[in-house]
Amino acid sequence: MAEGYVEYRNLRKSFGGLEILHGVDLTIPEGAFAVLVGPSGCGKSTLLRMTAGLEDVTSGEINIAGRMVNNVHAKNRGIAMVFQSYALYPHMSVEDNMSFGLKMRKTPLHLITDRIKRAAAILKLGPMLDRLPSQLSGGQRQRVAMGRALTREPEVFLFDEPLSNLDAKLRVEMRAEIKALHQRLKTTTIYVTHDQIEAMTMADLVVVMHDDRIEQVGEPLAIYDRPANLFVAEFLGSPAMNLIPGTIAQDADGRFVQTEAGLRLPLEPEANGTVGQAVVYGIRPEKPDGRGRGGRYPPGHCVGKDRAVDGQHEAAGGVLPRRRGRAAARR
């Protein structure tokens, strides 16, 4: 992995006597697209705001490009942030919104003109530079907010749930635009969302948070295939992973998981656990073992080319809508 570009070392945040971030340790490589994902209230936006300098650090360190920035003013941290609410000035044109921060920093006029022209070309905002925000669609406003961040030429981009106000179709389009922008600029990006689809489709590095702590860090498919605990297993995936309690047993053919109802579930040789240990066996709905015969599957609901089924298996319980792939045990 590349050397850490954004680093958090035993980072803690408290409001009064209430601690809301509990010793976060995280390293984000230079050029990575890291997504902080988790349910509402898990601390992901607080972590982002601390990175931006909008919240004070109670203890621990935040380092950007090898420099500790705990006491560095937000405008001097080399970051640019895109907010959920766009935060555009309604009385200013698109061009003025994009140039306002640069003018406040007394950037030379020719640099302002060049940066706006470049950002407008990348984000296809050229024909809209004279318009007011009220004359733009939601997606266009979000592109203006991205353009304003882009003109700062930051060391790190921060996105705080930027697509949550958009409709489903537009979210898909904007996800593609943001990812394409990252691939073009290669700027280190930290993106906050509660939407697991955004996390899985956009990230190089997924950081799953829960109850103000980091539960697991890794590449999207690695986390999906090998969740570190039950929370990650249940949180990532739609429909959610089926979780079946059982006990590890062994016979002449090797180890397997025995459920209370008597179902034998195959266990991979490299799976954790010892004979006699109580475990939870996880099966992704799209990757059942293929031995789940005897289930009762009521009519489900259509999700594109697939049909999600909420069914009850006679022996083990759970949803087994398809029959391919493998399953794995989790402690």
Automatic annotation (TrEMBL):
Keywords: ATP-binding, Nucleotide-binding, Transport. Transmembrane segments: none annotated. PROSITE patterns: ABC_TRANSPORTER_1 (PS00211), ABC_TRANSPORTER_2 (PS50893). Residues 284-331 are annotated as: Disordered. The keyword Nucleotide-binding applies. Residues 6-236 form the ABC transporter domain. The keyword Lyase does not apply. Residues 303-313 have a biased composition (Basic and acidic residues). Residues 321-331 have a biased composition (Basic residues). Pfam families: ABC_tran, OB_MalK. GO terms for molecular function: ATP binding. Belongs to the ABC transporter superfamily. This is Sn-glycerol-3-phosphate ABC transporter ATP-binding protein UgpC. It comes from Pseudotabrizicola sediminis.
